[in-house]
Amino acid sequence: MIPTPIRQVLSTIQTNGVQALLMGGQACVFYGAAQVSKDIDLVLLAQEENFSRLSAALGALKAKRIAVPRFDPALLARGHAVHFRCAAPGVEELRIDIMTRLRDLPPFSTLWERRTVIVGDRDEEFHLLSIPDLVNAKKTQRMKDWPIIELLVAIHYRENGATPCPDWVEFWLAEARTPELLAELVQRFPEQARAQTSRRPLLSLAFSGETEALRTALDAEVRAEQAKDRAYWAPLIAEFEGFRRAEREGS
After folding, report:
1. Is 0.70 surpassed by the pTM of this model?
2. Which helix (H) or strand (E) holds 165?
3. Whose CA is closest to 7, among 91, 88, 129?
């Protein structure tokens, strides 16, 4: 069941015509990869009309910016997030984080085209990042995100494995995070797995049954993605600290 405050915020966003996709912990909850989160993370279409609709929705939620940076499309385009806190009855203290750009993910138009639409028990629609896109968005330096990635891939395979399509097979082979699932995948889809070995060399270890070596290679993948995430955020964090100093000095 969707908590009432979450439902209220998402309904307000949709009622105001905001084109946005749910991501982060709340999206994981929708997919069944339970992750406790009190925040609502949204990736937004970066268009002036959409920003105006967002402003109306935030007004209805009595949401105020709570941290730097300020709401600025140029800053959002560089990868920053803008944070708001709701004060309307029923959603008090709920936080909304807005982004328009995600590391290593395609433009919003592509994300929207392959989104997941979930219909609630009141016939309302909830628009989420697809599981493959959510998996890529979760590849962060935080260790707590990696078990969630593992679970999301497993859920996607469990729900679609009986009727696989080429794109899904490619996704499973590219993102599966346990030796057991990888071993099953390469046995079931050997041709596709061999074709992907050049892009993900550890698939050859799944073919040969070298479980411990495969675990080591999977750990190395995590460390490499964490390093990429740290490198991506380093200049943004430096910029963020500058915003914070400027706001503190101006107050």
Report:
1. yes
2. none
3. 91
Q: Determine if the peptide bond prior to 235 is cis (ω within 30°).
A: no
Structural domain total, the chain: 2
Q: Which of 136, 156, 177 is the last residue of a domain?
A: 136
Answer whether residue 244 is part of any domain.
no
Residues 29 and 123 in one domain: yes
With H, G, I as helix, E, B as strand and everything else as coil, classify residue 129: coil
Tell me the Ramachandran region of residue 173: left when phi exceeds 0, alpha when psi lies from -120 to 50, beta otherwise. alpha
78-133 pLDDT per residue, tens: 999 999 999 999 999 999 999 999 999 999 999 999 999 998 777 888 999 999 99
**CA triple 30-97-230, angle to 5 deg:** 95
Tokens coding 200:
């993900």
Which pair of tokens denotes residue 33? Answer: 């990869």
Q: Are 162 and 138 in contact (CB under 8 A)?
A: no
**Quick one: 34 and 111 in the same domain?**
yes
Residues 6+ apart with CB under 8 A from 83: 65, 66, 67, 95, 96, 97, 98
For residue 172, give both structure tokens: 């499973």
Does residue 248 belong to any structural domain of this protein?
no
* 11 and 94 share one domain: yes
CA neighbor of 25 nearest in space, from 7, 41, 13, 6: 41
| Three-class DSSP category at 205 | helix
Range of the structural domain that residue 46 is part of: 4-136
Q: What is the Cα–Cα distance from 106 to 133, expressed in whole angstroms?
A: 9
